[in-house]
Amino acid sequence: MKKYKSSILLSFILLLIWEGIARYINAMYILPSPTKIIEKTFKLRKVLFLVHLPATLSVTLIGLFISIILGVSLAIAMSLNEKIERAIYPIMVVTQTIPVTALAPIFVLWFGYSIWSKVIVTTLITFFPITVNVYDGLRSTRTDMEELLVTYGASKKDIFIKLKIPYALPYFFSSLKIAVPISVIGAAISEWLGAQCGLGYFSKRMMTQLDGAGVFAPILVLSLAAVILVAIINILENKIINWRNEI
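RESULT FIELD:
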């Protein structure tokens, strides 16, 4: 808690400034105050946490799972074969230049309002940081350590499992910390553009009613969900990479 003390203090100051500006403007539909947003979230807690949050989390977690499988597989393939890297990497970059807001309606036309139209959007914007970071991690292995293992008779499989994977693990967890907030954003955007439930859909519905606090309430829930997911990843990272502090 102590290491986050300054962050908590800064957040509190910013919220106070926001509260003061919102009260001065006094226009709830334009800029609701943090206290009004919290009140609205509490008032809508059942529909937000029991109906729309599970829908958004389903899209987020399924999209993340597919992104991890796809991203790690591509990273391994590129690290093992330079020709694959030259063929795949430019295509991956191109996929990141296409606006999500342009693709989401197309996926809705293809898959309807099912969960898969939203999962594809989430996967599309999250697999890239996972792929690039894991690929960089696999390439970061020290050459002298590889040569040492070779002199001891280690095979390429042994080098990959016992050296390259441990070196890539910190990069993998770093990529997850990037991908999780992006996946939450991607799920919300896809729901905003075409869905029948979810926090993004609910936020859009509140906007049509000019309910400023109602628009921000699901955003607050989204932020809390992202923070919790990143905290879980931090815990897993500290448990799995416990050898890092000993180096």
